Structures are given as structure tokens and as C-alpha cells.
Amino acid sequence: MDSTAGRSNARRRILEASFVALLGSFIVAGVGTNAAMANSPTPTAATAGPGTVLQNANGTVTVNFSGTWIWPFSSLDKDTMGINATVNNPCDHRFGAGWGVVWSDPNDPGFIETYNSHGLAVTVGVGSRGKDSANADTRVTYDAFAPCGTFQETNNPAPGDGNIVGTFQATHTYANAAALPSMVCVITYDLGFGKTPVPSRVQFTNDDNSVAWSLFLEHGWNQVAGGPNCTKLPAPVPAPPTPTTPAPPVTKTVSNVVPPPVHPATPKAVKTVTPGILAFTGFGPMGQLLALLGVILLLVGVVLYFVDVRKVWLWLLGL
Known about the structure:
Distance between the termini: 217 Å
Order of helices and strands: HEEEEEEEEEEHEEHH
Radius of gyration: 56 Å
Largest sheet: 6 strands, mixed
């Protein structure tokens, strides 16, 4: 009896363990399927028109790549497969859209990633590994000022519903013209929910992107030049010369500081002489001689004035 009960309990534990394992496998499979089918923005135009492929003076070639993307309204499960963009909630709690570029640079293949969906896979080399300091797209790029683009009200499928549209741009420098590929392609990414993207969302391993979404919807990823994802590169044109900055003009600096007031010089002390009695201190030897000569001349003058000199002279001569 006891052995029978023991065998029954053992079978029950085996069945419970099998059920748990089976349930877990369904959960894992469901999570994997939802992740693979997650919605993302998709490119609508990729351009690299005339003047965007520039031959630099040092022999390198710079490609300026730009285009547009759209995140259409979807009535699918908003948490995993759609974006319910409405007037009152234009970004559906998402942070926004990012992008990475398949540059096909033989000197810098970027980050090799394989994106899967429903048994289909695409392997790409996206972004740059920074072998040239001019190439800094080592992770998913996004517009920090408007990550969720612009809401466009379409009132489809219901009033107030719409799409989100935005632009992307990227730059890459190749070692020379021989390294240029025939075309470049863009991949757009869903940066997740919240106010800032979590680290896994800004890495190229983020499989919530336009490649996986295209594999789910169209069973392939369009890599035809002129399509929404890729554009053909035009022939390089010489880059415009770098403008030189003229030397700033020499300017004379005029000080607005008011000079200190000039104080008048202190007048020199003037020696004052108190008036008093004039004292006669007498003549020296020269003074005495001149006084005597003056007296003689005075007497001579008096004699000449009062005496008839002619008569006196005749008298003295006895005439």
C-alpha cells in the first residue's frame, strides 16, 4: 500500500515538473516571438544627392547621408507591436526613434549584427568602430532635441490618431575614393519606453528595428538603391576650400579712467621784510672819493656861474 502511494506521488511530481517545463517553454517562445515582431519606425527616403559626397584635399572622401522616417499608427498590441500615436499622446510613451547606417566601408566594417524574425535573418555591418576619428557613430544615433519627431494627425483609423515622422542624418569619412561603396543603407530603431533610452536600446544589438520589422511584414529587407532604405552614392566632387579666418584688426584701446585731479603746487614761502628805519652805514673809500669830486665840480660850477672868468683871467695876466 505504501509502495503504491509512493509511486503515485512520484508520478504526480513528474507530471507537475513536465507541466512547469512546458509552460516555461511557451512563455519563452511567446516572449521571443513578441520581441521579434516588435514595431519600429521605418525609413521613407534615403538620399545622398549631388554635393553630398566630397573629395577632401587630403585624399579622404566624406559622405553626408540623410533622409526621412515614419512611425505609422498601428492597432496591434501597443506594448510590443504597435504605436498608438494620438493627439493627446503623440509618442505613445515611447522615447523616440534612432538610426544607424550600413556604410560598407572596407577599412571599417562597423559592428556586425544579425537580425532575425520568423526564421529569416539579415546580417549587416552597421555604424563605425572609430578607426577614423571623424567617424563617431559607434552606437545608435538619435535627435536629442526631438527624438520622437513630429506628430501628423490623420484621423485614421479614428479621430485624433496619426503618424510620427522625422528626419535622420549621418556622416562618414572614407580613406579614399576607391573605398567608396556603390550605395549606403539606413536602419531605424525603437528606443523603447521612458524618458531616456536604456543602454541596450542605443546599442546596435537592439533588434527592435526596421530590418526585423521588414522581415516580419515583408519577409525580406529591401537593399535596392533608390528604395526607402538605401541610396546610390554619386561621384565625389571637390570639397569647398576651408575658409581662412582673417587676422583681427589692431585696435587702440582708449582708457575711460578719469585722471586724478591735479592739485596746485604749494607756493614757496616768501620772506617778508618788516619795514623799519633806514640806517646810514657810511661810504667806503670809493664813495668818499666820488663825494669829494662832486664837491669840487659843484664849487667850479658856482664860480663859473657868479664870476666873470674872462675878467679874472685878464686881471691875472695884468692886462
